[in-house]
From TrEMBL:
Ranges for domain LysM: 32-80
Compositionally biased intervals (Basic and acidic residues): 105-117
Transmembrane domains' residue ranges: none
Protein name: Curli production assembly/transport component CsgE
The UniProt record lists the keyword Signal: yes
Signal peptide: 1-23
Top-level taxon in the UniProt lineage: Bacteria
Pfam families: CsgE, LysM
Disordered, as annotated region: 91-117
Keywords from the named record: Signal
InterPro entries for the chain: Bact_Kbp, Curli_CsgE, LysM, LysM_dom_sf
Length: 252
């Protein structure tokens, strides 16, 4: 009887011990293992599981692997407590993309913000450049208008019938250097142009509808200035001759 009882007790002990080992194996097998990647730390790993505050529990679960400095190494295997894994899984069910993008979104937002700031800076620079050009053009236009007004009221009328950039440059240079001869009286100078394909543009100047000057411009500002200043001299001398002729006729 005693031997039989001992055998039964031993069998129960073996069964109980086996059950405990099996349960322990199941627990160890079921625990989540995390392999440390480059750049990881306890807080970043905790953030991956939904809350940076989990780092303390992760540390406690791996106290035998991590020293007091909390330093972990690439390739190191850490045990993640079941509670943290369960919370992570619940969060994933509610929003499958939230954890995946948790650490990526700030970097993407920063990159997008940098690109947006760069585009805004380029737009502002281009806009300011356009505004400056418009202001400069407006100043030149006002000056030209003022010069034309003075010419009309004091020295007669000077008409602008140019269209191209070369023609407009010629006209502006002419006005900048033009001064009516004393006693010239009323007159009308007309500056017109006739485009000639592949050969520039033909400038014609008439005084009181009589052609006094004609020249083909070239796409060179220095040449345009030279021709315009020469045309001023031609018109000045023409008006002087007209005044002299008028005075001679009035003497008869």
């Amino acid at each position: 009887m005693g031997l039989r009882y001992s055998i039964i007790v031993s069998l129960f002990s073996i069964i109980a011990c086996g059950s405990t080992l099996y349960a322990q194996d199941q627990k160890d097998t079921g625990s989540y293992r995390y392999t440390v990647n480059a750049g990881d730390n306890l807080k970043s790993i905790a953030e991956d599981f939904g809350n940076s505050g989990y780092w303390k529990k992760i540390y406690e679960a791996n106290a035998n692997k991590i020293d007091a400095s909390h330093i972990i190494y690439t390739g190191q295997t850490l045990t993640i407590p079941d509670e943290i894994v369960s919370n992570r899984d619940s969060s994933v069910v509610e929003n499958s993309d939230s954890l995946k993008n948790t650490r990526r979104i700030p970097a993407e937002n920063k990159s997008q913000k940098n690109r947006a700031d760069k585009k805004l800076s380029e737009f502002r620079e281009a806009f300011e450049k356009v505004v400056a050009q418009e202001q400069q053009a407006e100043v030149h236009q006002k000056k030209a208008s003022s010069d034309r007004g003075s010419t009309i009221s004091i020295n007669g009328m000077v008409l602008d019938e140019t269209r191209s950039k070369m023609g407009i440059d010629f006209y502006n240079i002419f006005y900048r250097h033009w001064e009516s001869p004393p006693g010239a009286g009323n007159f009308m100078i007309t500056i017109s142009e006739q485009p000639t394909p592949s050969r520039g543009t033909m400038i014609t100047i008439s005084i009181d509808n009589e052609k006094v000057f004609q020249n083909r411009l070239q796409p060179k500002y220095a040449y345009t200035e030279k021709v315009a200043r020469y045309a001023v001299g031609v018109c000045y001398r023409t008006l002087l001759r007209q005044r002299s002729t008028s005075n001679s006729l009035s003497g008869y």
